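Example with several molecule types.
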Amino acid sequence: MSFVAGKNILITGATGGIGEALALQLSALKPATIFVAARSADKGKAAVEAFKAAGAADAVVVMGDLSSKAGVNSIISGVRESGKPLHILIANAGAWNTRDEGRVTTKDGLEFHFQTNFLSCVQLMKGLMNLLEKSGPSRVIVTGGYGVIDPKLIPVEGLMQTGMDDLQFEKSKVTSGLGPNKFNNDLSYGQSKLLELMYLKKYITESPKKVTIIVWDPGATASNIGAWPMLKEKMGTVAVSMLQFVLGVRAATTSCKVGVWCCDSPEAANAHGTYVEWGVSGALKKNVPVPLGWFPSYFKYAPAAMDDDKVNEVYKKANAML
Ligand SMILES: NC(=O)c1ccc[n+]([C@@H]2O[C@H](COP(=O)([O-])OP(=O)(O)OC[C@H]3O[C@@H](n4cnc5c(N)ncnc54)[C@H](OP(=O)(O)O)[C@@H]3O)[C@@H](O)[C@H]2O)c1
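Resulting structure tokens for the full complex:
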């Protein structure tokens, strides 16, 4: 039986890439309302029209930029002020700055990836948790990623190289592929996803019972994130498509099927506190959900996610910043 049919969904990052493909496929399952969190009114409007055309009974834009606390609060208010119940929160939006411009900070003075990918996800989820609980059984689906563990992508083993006292790379000169003593965007992106995982690892032990929380991994996907737009500019679209084919990079319409399963399948209702990954490249290979911190395709744990002291500290630090 479909969980999505007749339900209300909030999704971030549905104006492009994986989130857009996911929301389109969910629309075909006839949800009642899709709240489209967007930072651009035009893109939000286009998404709303597309989701309604694809089958959603209704879709509305809730404006907010995830790189600021005010932006997240605006999304939360938009959903609350509708007066509707909320059954599925899909925290999907993510950003990976690959421009060589050093450490970027947000309006709130926080490191860009730390706030946009990690802290805002926590702020959004906690800001809507009592609504989700009231509407239970409900689901929170967070888009994580194998970037946490893949040494080719985030080329410093284990991450958390900066130590717990420097989660926003204020002091550290840790570098990897981008050159000596430059702030490393790859590490910061990977670490933001790791922090999200660590926070959730603690949160799932005390979150409301009626809310199933799952982290899912779309795997390598052709989208606008990271280096893909820059590579297209340099190499051209055809060459990039060929490269993606060789690397087994998935189309967003394929990778989002893992997210559809998390949102819709009856089995996923029992997957609270797990990581759902169906391989990280090439064709989807359905795996069983695994505990947070374990990466099936790499057959290893992220060390920091298995360290209870670090997990508790990340949890405390993030809560103190909300
Ligand atoms: N692509 C991959 O290979 C891959 C692999 C593993 C995990 N992931 C994860 O998948 C998720 C989706 O990424 P994607 O690949 O689909 O990227 P994408 O094509 O760049 O799409 C990102 C989406 O997030 C939105 N977004 C970015 N920054 C935002 C902000 N500050 N405020 C509000 N919305 C913002 C974008 O909105 P605009 O349209 O306004 O830009 C867009 O809708 C991310 O969490 C990413 O980390 C991706």
